[in-house]
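Quarterly update from the structural biology core.
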Amino acid sequence: MSSIPASSAAPTSTAATIAARIDRLPPSNTVRNMVVLLSLGGCFEFYDLFLTAYIAPGMFKSGVFTATTKAFLGFEGIASFVAALFLGLWVGTLFVSWFSDRYGRRPVYTWALVWYCIATLIMAFQQTAMSIDIWRFIASIGIGVELVNIDAYVSELAPQAKRGSYFAMNQFITFSAVPIVAFFGWLLVPHTLAGLDGWRWVAIIGAVGAIPIWFIRLGLPESPRWLERKGRVAEADAILQRIEAKVTAETGQALPQPHVVQGETAEVQGRWSEIWSAAYRKRTVMLIVFNILQTVGYYGFASWAPTYLIAKGYDIPKSLLYTFIIAIAYPVSSLIGTTFGDRFERKWLIVVPALGVALFGLLFANAGGAAAIILFGILVTFCNNIMSYAFHAYQSELYPTRIRAQAVGFVYSFSRISAVISGFIIADLLKTSGDVGVFTFIAAAMVGVAIVIGIMGPKATQRRLEDIAR
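Predicted structure, tokenized:
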């Protein structure tokens, strides 16, 4: 099988662009394996991203932070730790994500991972709320870059017919980290080991565990689409010929002829200002509003779930146990999403789950017993994650390769600022109105998500990236 020459795998005429050759690839282990490798790095990114919810009770126990604040912007509360996370994500997505368009998907994937792992390790040994917040902020810059970079990477490697399913697979693997961090939180946070609070061990495990990803990156090629747009056509062609040869050997069939979309061969130098051109202005405004709203529902639950249960009167071990059970729904919902990721139009896979979050969130807030709390928590998580994989694919599809990372980074950055502000709003509502007030706020935001995407969102499923971005 390995003896098949690369040149026989597919036509490589000048009429056949890199995009056309990628999009004619059939479902294969070759492409799936690349998505898996990318996703393994994303596991540690998501472990770190979801750390807040599961170590917060330990931070309360050790006296570093409190659940609520005396003043709206009080830095003694856990809201400041949440704010440090999202301020770092904002800096990473808005000011640093363009590195991916400038220097390539592969090197940014590697160095962003190293950045946030080192910073998280340092954070684990800090003693004051301020120093913990500072290192959380620094670590989150790397996470912000990586989130945008992986989305761009996956969208450019995945053929159009399976792009939604590959994003769902990516999120299944990355979200597998959430029950893991929840499990470590339940196991370690209530205890002190070797003189260190349990929450510190949870952070250390994530930072040290990412070391093997340095070696995993060796199996990843650079994005051929990115190389082509940078004029490095020979490198792009060589990488894609290797992929085509592997797919041909794997399937035992000749690849179909590539189909070039009119205008996709035009070479244009990307500029940030292009997102405000007539072609992309409406999409940019839509995604800004969407990101401001979606993060209220997503992280309003994901970052605060154990805190809600403590506010209901449950002790730390029980609240962590319940949220560990709920956390199992993170990877499971994404796995289910792989079965219909490309069967339904992407925009409706955002709209319908957003309404589900609004409904089930209100039911969660009013739930009295453990069974109801777990059930509605799982349903909120399920809807949030279907929406998550759909919108990560969707916003990456709406811009061309030449500006994909910086455009997505720009619109996505609004979710980070929203999360900073909404975190303080949630802390205040939790103190004044309880979790019912919090979830009423969340429900209103998610209804807004459904309206803006339902009315303004273009169709994207089963379409060439270059066709969507025209």
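Confidence is low (pLDDT under 50) at residues 1-15.
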